[in-house]
Amino acid sequence: MDDSINVDYSMALHYLLKLNQTIDTEVIQDAIAECYYHQKDYKKAIQYYEKTIQSDYDYRYIARCYQYMNQYDEALNYYKRFVDSEANDKDSEICNIIALSLLANDLETANNYAKLYKNYSFIADFPKNIRAYSALNREVYVEFYTLIAQQDIEQAKQWLSHREGDLANFYKAILAALEDKEREQKSEAYKDLYGKTNNQPLKSLMEDLGKGIISTYLFDKDQQTRLD
């Protein structure tokens, strides 16, 4: 699924739905799911993706649908299914799993999947950075973790908006990276919070997660050129 290709998904969807009335095939249903995905109708996209899993890569797009709907538990489940599949190039999805797990204070899952990172996209030492993260005092964030676990993401963001400091910046940045917004907009917000963070191990973890979730060129000087 290439987001850079200029496609009229509304028109494509119109004809695909008509075609699907007479020719009900898995390929057509998968194409319908893709159209709904690009139109940000994630519920319908999931409905069609789940009718027929054309490849392991469909798990990735189902995960993104749930993520953009703030259903982090389901997103995590499908990211895991993708990473545990036979698909290639899983580093970005591993970063999503680590990020979602840390938001839920699930260090076990974060550590388990950190070991699977293959450094195909960029060099990162997630186990080392997660160990440094786990040593930080996070007791004040228990309510935040509870809200995330309850899937009350907007309330979690509201709670976090009243907090300051490195950990607050870290969680705000991760939440910004997971939002359904344009990559350039997410990059700007993420780098702003990264710049306000002083703890070096935490900054290293932020840098690696940002590269994995948003763009491998996130911190390049010529980032704008790379993203265009």
Compact description:
By secondary structure, the protein is mainly α. The chain has helices at 9-22, 26-38, 42-51, 57-68, 72-83, 91-103, 107-114, 126-134, 142-149, 153-160, 166-177, 183-195, 200-213, 223-227. It has a domain at 90-227.
Helix-strand string: HHHHHHHHHHHHHH
Number of helices: 14
C-alpha geometry: elongated
Strand fraction: under 5%
Global Rg:
18 Å
Q: Give the oligomeric state of the chains in this entry, treating copies of one chain as homo and distinct chains as hetero.
A: single chain
Rounded to the nearest angstrom, the distance between the terminal CA atoms is 17 Å
Structural class: mainly alpha
* Low-confidence segments: 222-228
- Sketch the major β-sheet: none
User: Helical percent range?
Assistant: 55-70%
Total number of beta strands: 0
Mean pLDDT: 90
